[in-house]
Input
Amino acid sequence: MTTTTILGAGLAGLTTAMMLNRDGHEVTVLERDPAVPADRPWDDWDRPGVNQFRLPHYLLPRWWAELRAELPGAAAAVHAAGAAVINPLAALPPEIRGPDRDGDDRFTTVTARRPVLEAALVAAATAAGVSIRRGVRVTGVRTDGRRPVPRVTGVTTTGGAVSADLVIDCGGRRSPLPAWLAAAGARPVAEERADAGFVYYARHFRSPHGRLPEIRSMLNQPYDSLSVLTLPADHGTWSVVLTTSGKDKALRALREPAIWSAAVGHYPAAAPWLAAEPITGVDVMAGLEDRLRRYVVNGRPVATGVVAVGDAWACTNPSLGRGASFAIVHARVLRDVLREVGAADHDKLVRRFDEATAQVVEPLYRATNFVDTHRLAEIDGDVAGVPYRPDDLRWLASKALFAAALRDPGALRGYLSISSFLDTPDEVFATPGLRDRVLALGLPAPQYPLPGPSRAELLAAVTAGAR
Output
C-alpha cells in the first residue's frame, strides 16, 4: 500500500485523494487553511489560500460525468448539498435548441458556489476515510539528498516532518513546489508562462423566489469589448461576470456597483439576471496567467517521488470554467498510472505520468490557451478600434460555429459539446454535413451575433452609470 501525501484540500486535492483512496492507497491531505464550517460554508467559511474562493464558479458537464463515473459517493454529496442541476441545452428556448435528440442528457451538469461545492467534497472525502489535516502549512520538501535528481520522501511543515512514498502537489496556481525543489538541489522545472490579460468583474445574486433566471443564450457570451458570463449556482443563487482586457482603462469603472449594473442592463441575454438581491459587491480578479510546468526536462525528471496535478501543473483563464475538469481528468490519469507503475518505482512513475499527462491533459490545456490568446487579442482590437483579423482558420471556424449555433440546432449541439469539454473541435466538425452548414451560416454573420451594445454604447452606459 502506498503512503501518499497530497498538498491542498481544494477541488484537485479532494478528487485526487478520493480516487486514490478507493484504490487502497493510504492518503493524507495537508491543508493550511482552517476547517470547513458545518452548516453555512458560504456565509462563514474563508479560504485565504484560494484567491478565487468566493468568486463565481461553473462546473462543466465533463466534470460532472467524470465525478459520477469515478466517485459516485462524492456526486451524491454534491447533489445533496443543493447544487443546481442544469442542462444548458435543455434550458434554451425551443426555437433555438430544436426538438430533443438522443444524447442531449450528456449536457447535464450540476453547479454551485465554490464554498458549497468544496464543503460537499470535504464531507464525501471524510466519509470515505480520507485523512484531512487542516491548519498545516507546508514549508518545503524532504529528499534523500541526491543531486541533481533528488527523490522526495516527504515534506516539512510548521508542525514537523511528514514522510510519504509519494507527494502529490495540488496546491493550485500559486504552488511554490518549483522553489522547494530548487532549494533541495533539483534542476529548474521547465515553465511556459503568459499573462492571460483578463480582468473579471463579478457579482452574486439571490433569487427572491428560489428560481433561477431564464437562460436565453449560451452562458458565456462574447460581445464588443468584453464577454458576459451568466452562471447558475446553488440554492437559488447565481452570478454574472463581465470579462474585460486588463488594458481597457475605460472599463475599470465597472468595479462600482451602479456602473456595473448599468452596463449589464444593456445586454438583453443578461439583463434579467439583475432582477434579484445582490449578495456581494463587485468582486474584481486580475493578474492571472496561462502557465504550464514540466517536471521532466530533456527526458530526465527534475525530481522523483513527487508529481503535480491540476492547477499546480497548468492553469488557464477561468472564464471558460475548465479548471475543475482539468483537475479531475488529471487525477484519473494519475490513478491509472499508479495502477500500472507502483510508487516504489519512483523514476518510472514520474516519467510515465509525464507521458500520460502530455497525451491526455496537455491537449486540453493547449485548446484552452488557444481560445484565451485569440479572444484577448479580439477584445484588445475592439478597444483600439482595429478589427481583429487573424489568419488562423481554427479561430475563424470557432467564430463561425458560435454564430451558426444560434440558428442551427446541430451546430448548437456541436458548440456546446466543445464548450462542455465533451468533444474536440475535430470530432465535432467530423459530423456529416456540419462543416458546410457552419460555413454557410457562420461566415456571413457579424463579428458579434448576439444583440448587445457597441463599444461606443457601452462606454456611454458606463459614463451614465457614474453620474
Notes: The longest strand covers residues 198-206. DSSP finds 16 helices and 21 strands in the chain. The chain has a mean pLDDT of 94. The CA atoms of residues 32 and 137 lie 5 Å apart.
